[in-house]
């Protein structure tokens, strides 16, 4: 057993479990475990690169069954993979990485309303590695914030691997952003620009797979290419590099408000073995169910929808009053984000006149008092009445076109339109 060094993750194929590993001579083998109702655990081995000698095959075939089970158990002990494998779930309910918004406090809230899996906002990998201040400001979590995927923006495998190694003890997996369409990202080789450089994507995945603990996931979030064939080919290449799952935003880089291409998403899902998460146009639970039934994707990811309605995945058509109550009783550190979220959440809870007044409030104490009066919210956490306006911190150029001190518009749509592309 000491002769085997695991180098790749676990993928699921129905009742089969597949492990790719190398021995100390760097020869790659594939171990496939079958669970049969009659014969129990059966194991088969092969090498895609050479004919295995009889001696080596004898050594591999005589690994004790309990050791093989230990390998499988250690590699599958990941709550993200467990979500995809849970037979009781029709699909995994996922919150998208959203700049400024999918931070710890919002993740706490949506987990109260049946959101299974959360992504952090994108963090610039190079800044995270170089700056202790960036690390402190860009990533906060706690023991209840799981399962959690941290998304990085990187344009080379070195930054991606180094940043991932720093953060991996505090999350369940890391994700590479290959979808951000912002001009600065494209100019600097980040986000959607990586779609034109698939070798960089594959190198990031392969290099990290060689460094990451086997029970952590690696994923890629991307956009569609210009045609279905190219999109499928890219996803298959990324799968072969060793990802645990793929998230696909159903629009191209140039598309903004067009309907997502469900036909292409369905084709991608049918063409890869790893789970696929659909992203785009998830505005209600019934909407998610319909798209899942058509595409077959294992996960449904919402951005705008869940921002406006944190109870989306629990089946609420609009923000439940309890979500506002819970938001006011979560410990916050920044007034701007505290207020912005409430602007989104209260859109359908307040009259137009009340919304206009509420959206222009500048003090936390006024925000809390307004909601206590309008929505009869009781027992608000006292510290949320005295929040300051200092930003929670930024790193890299990712926020360079997002003004920290801008005022909140009278309509939440104005905010969304100004930053929605940052949500990928």
From TrEMBL:
Source species of the chain: Aphis glycines (Soybean aphid)
Keywords: Flavoprotein, FMN, mRNA processing, NAD, NADP, Oxidoreductase, tRNA processing
InterPro entries named among the record's database cross-references: Aldolase_TIM, DUS-like_FMN-bd, tRNA_hU_synthase_CS
Gene3D superfamilies linked: Aldolase class I
Claim: Nucleus is one of the keywords in the record: no
Protein name per the record: tRNA-dihydrouridine(20a/20b) synthase [NAD(P)+]
One GO biological process term: mRNA processing
One annotated GO molecular function: tRNA-dihydrouridine20a synthase activity
Domain of life: Eukaryota
Cofactor(s) needed for function: FMN
A Pfam family that the UniProt record links to this protein: Dus
Every DUS-like FMN-binding domain range: 95-326
């Amino acid at each position: 057993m000491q002769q085997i060094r695991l180098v790749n993750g676990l993928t699921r194929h129905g009742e089969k479990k597949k492990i790719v590993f190398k021995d100390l001579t760097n020869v790659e083998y594939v171990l496939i475990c079958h669970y049969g109702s009659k014969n129990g655990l059966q194991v088969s081995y092969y090498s895609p690169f050479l004919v295995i000698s009889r001696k080596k095959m004898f050594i591999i075939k005589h690994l004790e069954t309990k050791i093989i089970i230990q390998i499988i158990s250690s590699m599958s002990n990941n709550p993200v993979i467990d979500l995809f494998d849970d037979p009781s779930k029709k699909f995994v309910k996922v919150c998208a990485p959203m700049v400024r918004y999918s931070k710890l406090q919002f993740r706490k809230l949506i987990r109260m309303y049946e959101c299974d899996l959360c992504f952090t906002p994108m963090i610039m990998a190079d800044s995270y590695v170089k700056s202790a201040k960036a690390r402190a400001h860009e990533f906060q979590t706690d023991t209840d914030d799981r399962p959690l995927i941290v998304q990085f923006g990187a344009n080379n495998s070195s930054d991606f691997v180094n940043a991932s190694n720093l953060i991996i003890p505090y999350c369940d997996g890391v994700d590479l952003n290959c979808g951000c369409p912002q001009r600065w990202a494209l100019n600097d080789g980040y986000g959607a620009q990586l779609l034109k450089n698939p070798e960089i994507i594959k190198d990031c995945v392969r290099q990290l797979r060689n460094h990451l603990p086997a029970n952590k996931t690696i994923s890629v979030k991307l956009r569609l290419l210009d045609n279905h064939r190219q999109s499928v080919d890219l996803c298959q290449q990324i799968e072969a590099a060793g990802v645990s799952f793929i998230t696909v935003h159903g629009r191209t880089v140039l598309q903004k408000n067009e309907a997502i291409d469900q036909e292409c998403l369905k084709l991608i899902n049918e063409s890869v073995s790893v789970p696929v998460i659909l992203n785009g146009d998830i505005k209600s639970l019934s909407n998610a169910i319909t798209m899942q039934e058509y595409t077959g994707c294992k996960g449904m990811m919402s951005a705008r929808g869940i921002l406006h309605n944190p109870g989306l995945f629990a089946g609420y058509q609009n923000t439940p009053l309890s979500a506002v109550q819970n938001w006011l009783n979560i410990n916050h550190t920044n007034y701007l984000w505290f207020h912005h979220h409430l602007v989104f959440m209260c859109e359908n809870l307040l009259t137009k006149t009340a919304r206009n007044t509420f959206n222009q409030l500048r003090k936390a104490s006024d925000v809390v008092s307004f909601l206590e009066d309008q929505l009869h919210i009781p027992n608000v956490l006292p510290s949320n009445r005295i929040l300051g306006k200092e930003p929670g911190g930024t790193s890299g150029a990712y926020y360079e076109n997002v003004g920290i001190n801008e005022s909140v518009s009278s309509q939440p749509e104005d905010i969304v339109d100004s930053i929605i592309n940052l949500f990928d």
